[in-house]
Prior knowledge:
The protein is mainly β. The chain has helices at 2-8, 21-48; strands at residues 57-58, 63-70, 75-80, 86-90, 95-100, 106-111, 119-122, 126-131, 134-140, 146-153, 163-168, 174-178, 194-198, 205-210, 218-221, 225-230, 242-246, 251-252, 273-275, 281-286, 302-308, 321-331, 337-349, 354-359, 365-369, 375-381. It has a five-stranded antiparallel beta sheet with strand order 1-23-22-21-20, with no helix packed on it. A five-stranded mixed beta sheet has the order 11-12-13-14-18, with no helix packed on it. Strand 7 and strand 8 (126-131) form a beta hairpin.
Amino acid sequence: MEKKQARLHGLPFAKFDSVGPCHKAMGLRRHVTPVALTLVFLILAREIYPYATPANEVLVDGYEIEEIANGLGGPTCMEWDELENLLMCDRDGDRIILFNTSDNFSQTTILDGLNNPHGIHITPDFLFLSEAGTLSKYDRAPNWQISNRTVLIEDVPTGNHQTNAINSLPNGSLIWHVGSTCNICQEDDSRNAALLWVDPTNGEHGVIASGVRNSFDGVWIESMGYVFTDNGRDWEGDHPPEEFNLLIAGESYGWPDDEPETPIPQGTQGPIATWTPHTSVNGIDVRPQNSTLPGLSEGSGHTVYATVYGSWNTILPQGHQLIRVDFTPSFDSNGNFSGWDSETSVFAKDLGTPLPLRFSPSGDLYYAIFGNGGTLYKVTLTQ
Length: 383
């Protein structure tokens, strides 16, 4: 007891065995401590890195990234109106911002007091708004005076994920992206982990695609269809990859039955392109033919650009990118169309946490960072 007490107080003992338990423990600590410190450093770096000032490295010669506006809170959606003004959802500020592009992107808040706005869709007479579990419609005047809110859908459950983008299909129906309430589970409400079709006049709705764990956004591509992103389950190593899917009405896209052994369960639809697992592919838009960004020419296929937010489900940071996906048609031996081939590449990296993304009517690409105070960027041609 005396030796133990004395050793704990740092008193030396000449007869203490130099290779005894204490020295062995000290030797073990000398080896373990650097490893522990390295792990702590990696964890802290992973948490801090996405929210540090982005490096914004473009990997394609001739392009650079220009900051347009900052201090925007938590941008989650962007849309252009017919006058080329830009609207943005600010989740942190619970508001919708209007940028007047003819006045150096001056800002006006046109709606506030919202509940986690994640998506808007614009028509000449209305603004449709996706909030947490609720889809609403507002009357809009040409000067962006908003009035007469009508709730189309409410009480959709939210949990791990929520209700995201609201877009439209050529037949006039809206399409609403609804996330799952969990990582892996059987949902009590069939509207979760699904894409919903919605009648814009009265809010009548139903499931158009199921088994979609967390789809953030989608885009209609002429001659191809509706392509949407979907983020897969966490905590399963390299399974599953993040997905780009082509909408087929009435079909399931696999979740929550997409086990590592059966990544595409029987009777479900597989992706048409994939990306690094757990990196969170979110905003997506099709490259217009008037864009200066690289992409396929009309008739040869379609090019989309997408944001990769980044992962909290890995030790080392991943994602934080803009990626390009080229879709080209494939044909069988008889010359009949058989599907879409894809090729995916990184356009820019070290972007922080990019989330919404849209091409402007003039063909320029804009995206916004959700973290780091909220910043709007534009990809510009330098040549």
